[in-house]
Amino acid sequence: MEQSANQDSARRPETDPRYLRVRRKLVHSVLELASVKPAEQIPVSELTSAAGVSRTTFYKHADSPSALLADYLIGQLKPRIDPLANLLDDDRPNYLLRWRMIHIGLLEHVQDNEDIYSHVFASDGQSVVLSMLSSYFERLFEQYVHKFADHIEGPPPSDLWLAMATSQQVHNTIAMISSWLRTGMQESPSEVVGTYVSLVPPWQLARFSETGRVSLRKARGVARVQQREADESDRIPRTGFVELDTRNLRGIND
Description:
Elements lengths: L1 H9 L6 H18 L9 H8 L3 H4 L6 H17 L13 H18 L1 H7 L7 H22 L9 H24 L6 H9 L18 H16 L23
Helix pairs in contact: 2-3, 2-5, 5-6, 5-8, 6-10, 8-9
């Protein structure tokens, strides 16, 4: 008996068949419930009843239904977008193409879980799940931005630049997803990423040299061109249409 007790105490949740079986029930139930209403509106009692487990058992898995859902979604996202953190470790000339494929994978995940994400992003910024997703994105993009900064020619970027670039990536990713959901998801993931690429900050479009270095001055040149175009906006025909110069996007949206 003592040996059995020691084995149970030493057994980790991720290898405990009973733990995993209960977790699958909880995840299945929270996904069903979260597809019809925000996770923040799911009482623990409703979730445990749907899963057929006790409240005590539930709290061995999560602090709340929102936390359980966020943990599941992040677990699904990790294999798709965690490679961003090490995107610049090799094959830098094609990093933007691989960046594009990673973002398409992110949107395909959102598309597969449209009913759930429509509630996550429809809470006017009050969603616990969205907050947890944002924290995950921030950790991921912080690694991505710092890796990019390691390849910049000249003086290293300031802490302010690093912080702003990271926040920019997080907010832009959330805006991409929420805008797609809000407009009815009419476009394909590839088309959404294509639109997103036309709006990315100039430093992300900078090309790496053969030595693996990148110049922010060239990226700033792109920004200056964009600013000049904005300053000359009074010359745009009254139709309101403007032709976008996509030379810097060549190869990304192909």
